[in-house]
Amino acid sequence: MDGLFGLKTMAFEPVGFKGKKILITGATGLVARPLVRAYAENATVYAMARYGRAEDRHAIEGLGAIPIAVDLAHQESLAAVPEDIDYVINCAVSRSGNFDMDFRANADGVGFLMARCRKARAFLHISSTAVYEYRGHAPRKESDPLGDNHRAMFATYSISKIAGERVCMFAARQFGIPTTIARLCVPYGEHGGWPYFHLMMMRNGAPIEVHPERPNYYNLLHVEDCIEKIPRLLAAATPEVTLTNFAGSPRVSIEEWCGYMGELTGLQPHYVDNPSAFGSLCTDLTRMRELVGDTRVDWHGGIRGMIAALAPELLARGTSRSPA
Fold first, then answer.
1. What's the DSSP call for residue 134?
2. Per DSSP, what are the bridge partners of residue 252?
3. How many structural domains are present in the chain?
């Protein structure tokens, strides 16, 4: 290993989950819930969330996992977390808009969680490409400048995620926990995601605000690719911290995926330029490819599967053929 950005090229084999104890935080969310479902087939999964609704707890139990009620903004609640966890996948995030609360949950809470799970074989912290400064269409590398990217919509999000990364790096080194930080870019799947919000806006005739420096490029990451790649990201963990972008291999613009959803459904996107809207945030995937390889899910098929799962009645309206 050559440090934060100097890892030598290597292909990591996935860690084995069979018979292991895995803690997945933010378990009721878009990314984490499919992980709970997939990994509970072979491992003992502790699914951590606030569980404000009883139906969420019942749903997690139905996936074969053990729900534990923890709020990372409150250190004392971490007493519910077993101390003999093998692997931690931290997907929890707070977007309350309250700076004190979101810093406590997204930054302080990461440190307290790692202190509790200091015996873990590896810790995966799911961060976000929202930590990067806006730079137009240039793909962001892990070493690029950071910035308050999402302030226009989520006031606390970008800076609290940046703070969370730094706390994670400190705790990894302080406690000697092998750690990977993965900066996630536009997750989506059969539970929803940003493209689904755009679809609902199209259905309701609402304008979709886009940055005027079109096209607005991102890297769609399907949850099935998350399921396949995360054991490899854990295998790549080191106490010096492995930092990588975590995104779908193809670059796709908002305009492309909304246009494709229009072909599938017969709905038409209506764009409105807004300089304050999120601009392009595509990623350089050199590091990710070295560590875990390319993603596999074709974004056309992923988008069609999302619509089929969440709004199948809309597919009947479209005339587009499904890609092979």
1. P
2. 218
3. 2
Report which of 32, 31, 67, 75 is spatially closest to residue 50, judged by C-alpha positions: 67
* H/E stretch holding 170: helix 157-175
Contacts of 194 (CB under 8 A, 6+ apart): 186, 188
What percent of the chain has pLDDT above 70? Answer: 95
Same-domain status, 135 and 213 = no
Classify 205 as helix, strand or coil: coil
Judge whether 252 and 109 are in contact, CB under 8 Å.
no
For residue 152, what pLDDT is reported? 81
Q: What is the arithmetic mean of pLDDT over 3-29?
A: 81
Shared-domain flag, residues 27 and 157 = yes
Looking at the structure, do residues 161 and 270 belong to the same domain, yes or no?
Answer: no
Mean pLDDT of the chain: 94
| Residue range 111-126: mean pLDDT, rounded | 98
- Lookup result for tokens 């810790």: 123
Q: What is the pTM of this model?
A: 0.94
Question: What sign does the dihedral 125-129-132-138 (CA atoms) show?
Answer: positive
- The neighbouring-strand residues paired with 209 are 272
Strands (E), the chain: 21-25, 44-49, 66-69, 87-90, 122-128, 179-184, 187-189, 192-193, 208-210, 217-218, 221-222, 242-246, 252-253, 271-273
Note whether 276 and 155 are same-domain residues: no
Each as own residue / partner, the long-range contacts of residues 47-53 (CB below 8 Å, 24 or more positions apart, any chain) are 48/23, 48/24, 48/81, 48/92, 49/25, 49/92
- For the residues of 259-309, what is the DSSP string, one character each? HHHHHHHS----EEE-TTS-----B--HHHHHHH------HHHHHHHHHHH
pLDDT at 223 over 50: yes
